[in-house]
Design goal:
This protein is an alpha+beta fold. 19% of the residues lie in helices and 40% in strands. The strands form two sheets. Strands 1-2-6-3-9 form a five-stranded mixed β-sheet, with helices on one face. The chain has a four-stranded antiparallel β-sheet with strand order 5-4-7-8, with no helix packed on it. β7 and β8 form a beta hairpin. The radius of gyration is 22 Å and the shape is globular.
Length: 151
């Protein structure tokens, strides 16, 4: 009779231990963010080539003040994009090559910024207005479909 009373107690203790234990991903790289870089005091992360990394970057976007996405008009995502972020008056703040279609950026203050993306001589640009301490602003830079074609 004691074993019948112990079984539910042990089951509850086992469930409590399982709930309190941190979940371990099956693959150590699943959902991991790429390493952050810093240039001129601006921190940024580029990536999103694989679906796990893209999902992780999308989740992390709410913690950064600017998310950039690079794609062609037909919806294909682009990698190896030359990116420039400039202040409203044209002074370049960040120039890098993003190795994936998603870039998360932490600009130091609010204001208007011009963002340019270039691949194979084709360019797209846009302006973004950031509020101080605001997070989660998104800008999609769409390049011509031909940008991915060799010609």
């Amino acid at each position: 009779m004691n074993s019948l009373h112990l079984s539910p107690i042990l089951a509850v203790l086992a469930c409590a231990a399982a709930v309190s234990a941190p979940l371990q991903p099956q693959d150590d790289t699943a959902g991991a963010l790429p390493e952050a870089q810093t240039q001129n005091g601006i921190r940024y992360v580029c990536g999103g080539v694989g679906s796990d990394e893209a999902a992780a970057l999308k989740r992390a976007a709410r913690d950064h003040n600017l998310e950039l996405t690079f794609a062609t008009r037909d919806g294909s995502f682009l990698a190896d994009v030359d990116v420039t972020i400039a202040a409203a008056r044209g002074r370049s703040l960040l120039t890098t090559t993003c190795d994936g279609p998603i870039m998360l950026v932490d600009l130091p203050k609010g204001g208007t910024y011009k963002v340019s993306a270039e691949v194979n001589g084709r360019e797209a640009s846009g302006k973004v207005q950031l509020q101080s301490h605001a997070k989660g602003k998104h800008l999609a830079l769409v390049l011509p479909r031909e940008v991915g074609e060799q010609g």
